[in-house]
Write a structure and sequence with these properties.
Strand content: under 5%
Structural class: mainly alpha
Number of helices: 14
Bound molecules: protoporphyrin IX containing FE
CATH topology of the largest domain: Peroxidase, domain 1
Oligomer: single chain
Number of domains: 2
Radius of gyration: 21 Å
Shape: globular
CATH architecture of the largest domain: Orthogonal Bundle
Strand order of the largest sheet: 1-2-3
Helix content: 25-40%
Number of strands: 5
């Protein structure tokens, strides 16, 4: 018994260690790095709290922004850079919001601790704080920090709204994320926020070109959504809650899984997760159990490690929307992620009609074709139907 206890304790310590330090990232990276012991995380928390108190949908804004940043060029805040070829302007990011929350947090941090805290870390911290605010601080996960900011925008290469579970598993695996990470990130992410009618019209009226609705949608949900998104005259900017449990539409919780079990998930991939052999057991157990907060926090940290720049790579931007002039202090290459093609990537970025997809950006060269579209690609992507344009 004592041996078992000792082994359990040792394993526990290892796990804690793993969860607090990954490569050059670590929880509390900024401790002692600012004058007067300024608490950087408290400053970010203050800015996010002020926004959240005015607008609870800030949590959805930040979660999506964080995901769209990390899946393009890694978690390097490249999504925040302004410019004609910026990621912001790319079609899949047209309805991404929350940039101003990061700008506000960054400005507050810069006032107390100039030139030290990366925008990439502010995205991670702010997202964590918004999640914690959404659950009234009943739980929060620790966030690793120590990222640096990227120097160029990336090619926006995001999963299509019509992606299948199998394809999605591959896309997440290409980023080093497991099936569990994927289920937790999709479930937590889509437990808040909105989608727009164009993203679900096929499920309502013409699923897989059958002229019939998705048979996996509950009849009650179908009728509710059809009245919100009529076959003709539906407004592209009509919003539909991703979590149909109105009591928790702004709370990051396991209600997504419960809804999916009742065939009340909104997006196609969300519903399919409840039936796919690789994911259904996890969806069912998460719907029933109490493990979601821990697993979601772990998945967010795994997401936060995708393609990060650390050490002397990249730079710490002064303002999140503008890259600092390159000095000897910043490494011009996009370091370990975009390989040698940083310049090419910038040049072939979002406006190119024939930009290579998986070869010049961070997406693995084996990314499935469904996900391998750039900003001008014609595959159905998150932004193909562009409700906010
Ligand atoms: C296969 C992967 C994913 C697909 C296909 C997908 C697809 C979508 C689509 C189509 C929308 C609606 C966009 C609109 O109507 O403007 C959406 C919204 C959203 N997604 Fe995802 N998503 C994926 C993964 C994720 C992940 C991993 C997260 C976060 C960790 C996330 C967080 C969100 C949030 C919070 C919203 C609502 C945004 C808002 O209210 O402004 N998504 N997603």
């Amino acid at each position: 018994m004592k041996v078992l206890a000792a082994v359990t304790l040792a394993l526990g310590l290892i796990l804690i260690n793993f969860s607090t330090c990954y490569g050059d990232l670590q929880v509390g990276f900024y401790k002692g790095k600012c004058r007067n012991e300024v608490d950087v995380e408290a400053i970010v928390r203050g800015a996010v709290t002020a926004r959240f108190n005015r607008d609870h949908s800030a949590v959805a804004a930040l979660l999506r922004l964080c995901f769209h940043d990390c899946f393009v060029n890694g978690c390097d805040a490249s999504i925040l850079i302004d410019g004609p070829n910026s990621e912001k302007k790319a079609s899949p990011n047209k309805s991404v919001r929350g940039y101003d929350i990061i700008d506000e947090a960054k400005a507050a941090v810069e006032r107390e601790c100039p030139g030290v805290v990366s925008c990439a870390d502010i995205i991670s911290l702010a997202t964590r704080d918004a999640v914690a605010l959404s659950v009234g601080w009943r739980w929060k996960y620790d966030v690793e920090t120590g990222r640096r900011d990227g120097l160029v925008p990336g090619i926006v290469d995001l999963p299509s709204s019509r992606i299948t579970v199998s394809e999605s598993i591959q896309v997440f695996a290409d980023k080093g994320l497991t099936v569990t990470d994927m289920v937790m990130l999709l479930g937590g992410g889509h437990s808040v926020g909105f989608t727009h009618c164009p993203f679900i019209m096929d499920r309502l009226y013409n699923f897989n070109n059958t002229n019939m609705p998705d048979p996996n949608m509950s009849p009650f949900l179908l009728s509710t959504l059809r009245s919100r998104c009529p076959p003709t005259g539906a407004r592209d900017n009509q919003e539909v809650n991703l979590d149909q449990n109105t009591f928790s539409a702004f709370v990051v919780d396991q209600s997504y899984y419960q809804q999916a079990m009742m065939r009340r998930a909104i997006l196609r991939v969300d519903q399919e997760l409840a039936f796919h052999p690789a994911t259904r057991d996890l969806v069912a157990s998460t719907a029933r159990g109490s493990g979601f907060p821990t697993q979601f926090g772990a998945a967010m940290n795994n997401l936060g490690r995708v393609g990060v720049l650390t050490g002397n790579q990249g730079q710490v931007r002064n303002r999140c929307n503008v890259v600092n002039p390159i000095t000897s202090n910043s490494t011009p290459a996009v370091a370990n992620k975009a390989s040698t093609s940083a310049t090419t990537t910038a040049a072939t970025n979002n406006t190119s009609t024939n930009a290579p997809t998986a070869t010049t950006n961070n997406a693995s060269t084996s990314a499935p074709s469904t996900a391998a579209a750039n900003n001008a690609n014609t595959s159905p992507m998150l932004g193909d139907i562009n409700p906010m344009a």
